[in-house]
Amino acid sequence: MKNDRKRKKRALLKIVLPIVFSLVALISFLLFRQGKTSFSSLIGKREFNFILITVDTLRADRIHCYGFPGVETPTIDLFASRGVKFEKCIAETPLTLPSHTCLMTGTHPTFHGVRDNGGFLVPPQLTTLAESFKQKEYQTAAFVAAYVLDSKWGLNQGFDYYFDKFDLSKYKSISLGNVQRRGDEVIDEVLNWLDKHHKEKFFTWVHLFDPHTPYEPPSPYKEQYPNQPYIGEIAYTDSQLGRLWRYMEEHNLQENTILIFASDHGESLGEHRESTHGFFVYQAGIHVPLIFVTPFEKIHGKSRSNVVSLVNVMPTVLEMANLPVPTQVQGKSLLPLFFEEKELEMDFAYSETFYPRFHYGWSELKTIQEKRLKLIIAPQLELYDLIDDPAEMKNMAFTHPAETRRLMRKAEQFLEMASKGAIEIDYRNLDEEAREKLSALGYIGSFVDSSSLAGRKLGDPKEKIEIFNKLSRAKEMGLEGDVEKAVRMIDKIIKDDPDVIDAYFTRGNLYFKERRFKEALESFFKVLDKKPGDAFTIINISNSYIAMGDFNEAEKFISSVINTIPPDSQIYFILGNIKNAKKEYEEAIKYYEECIRLNQSSASAYSELGGVYVTQGNFDRAEEYLEKALELNPSLRNLHFYWAQIHEERGDLHKAAEEYRVEMENNPSNFRAVFNLSRIYRITGDVENEEKFLKKTIDINPGFPLTYFYLARIYLNMGQDFERAVELVKKGIELKPKKEDLPLGYFLLADLYNRLGDNWKAEEYARKGRELAQEARGKR
Hints:
Helix content is 53%, strand content 9%.
């Protein structure tokens, strides 16, 4: 009996114990999972603010918390101590606009199609990070430090406020890289915006550009890092980030804000003979910092060695904010890595640069890298061991063919997957004013026609780097004003490699900026010979003729090529401008309307069409087109000038003055807006402001004759400075004003000499004035 009970007890234990152990294991697992903590449990039901910071041209291995002892970056180090740092983040491309597009849309360049700065637009059909936040009623704002991220390229999608407004008129020579603002200006704007919105939930993007060339760190950083200006710029940038962090602490924002810190690409600093970035895909140009800063101590000071990409930022941030991830997103959330280091499904990163292909007709470069091995796909394959050879000096492609083939297959599979459903971009939808500026910058017109490269063996950029460096240096010389030396260097480049279209185009732009239009035309026609039918070369040739005042030749040239190229809105816009300048208004209207038919997003064409109707006195029709332009681009040049003219003609001088002031803010070089504002002050009897804005007109355009007449008129009416007034009038006459304006000058001289007691001169000038007035009336 006793043995029976023992047997039953043992049998029962055999059944119960596995169940108990299973329950204990399950409870332990659940407790372990609970102990690990999920991000949703940390964040609870609270809504957090999000600040995204991107520092342009910041390579990871030049930051203190990434292991570089030669710089002090206390703010970035603080970010790392309060967050999760990813040690091996790779930018998909070493170029600003494409890289930010990856970050802001969560898609690879193979999908979104933005492959270079300028000439590409962020596809409007993609949902951006800002749009995702806006859909959940966050306040959204962006503050960008460089023209390469101007709103016209499309990254403003979803932002309530986008601080760009770059005044191109103040640059004698411009390129996408050198039109920028310092970090303190950007942070000033950020803090002003936060003053108004820090009590609301917000998503803010802050972009700083200081580590980009030219390296010009302010004091005391240039003294602290002598002969290391790039490092000095990084230290300066860190100090500006410190200002933002202190503001967050003062307003207790660090407790309810998640901050993401990243860079769009690195900087070569001479490695592999590349002086800056964009040309190669070595680690110096694509290894970037990525840190997620949160208020949660459980995930403070974490560091992860996984290979990740900037496309992972958007899905990670949206999951942190408990927002839906758009179906387009190709990146994967990094949140699982916040709590433990483990392998990801995608254990590699992809990067590319098409810069050598687009600008030089050489091969593009693609790369795929794992934790240890990296393959660069080029005419001559390159394989590197990033652990044993971090400087990428020992190419193992021929000594390790199996690994080379394996990574090549992996790259091919990735490219096929990442390109499915890729978006086609047509840069011709870019607004005409923007395209004209880009063409003058040499960022689109220098693109090599891809069809001309089909079937050709393309040059390996490694073998062409010296040409690239020389042309880059020539461009810098041009920016510095040493045009002759720049041209000599470009001539040598052309002699060594006559197929580099960018060289001819750059030389043409240098001559154009120096107003040497005939020489500019010679270079642009060389480009046209090598790339027939290129719309942007046609634009620059047309603009050269227009700048020479030869509207007839410009029109004749366009007529000779217009049927050899696909219909292009920019060409019709230029024809409209030519007809407008020739006062052939009905023809101008026809061409502007054709421009709009081809590009319904052309704010410039709507604006100029409105301007024609203002000139014709058809204000109702003008308003119709100006309203459309205002909707598309409220900061367009001349737009507010036309609005001001309408208000002035209707007698609303207050509104007219407001519009002239807006035009001056948007387009400081528009001297006519300044002159017309002085006229309003003259009409309203505000002599002090009339004089102020007449003098400002002279500062902007000393060659405008009427300004001198009306400034002299002030002195005449005030009964003072008659001798000075005479000089002003004579200066105005020397500048050859329109015939209908010339009598005013002589009548002013008659009055002034009368006041000076020289009756003979007074009568002579009065007689001359009457003759000119009668002659002008006779020609009407």
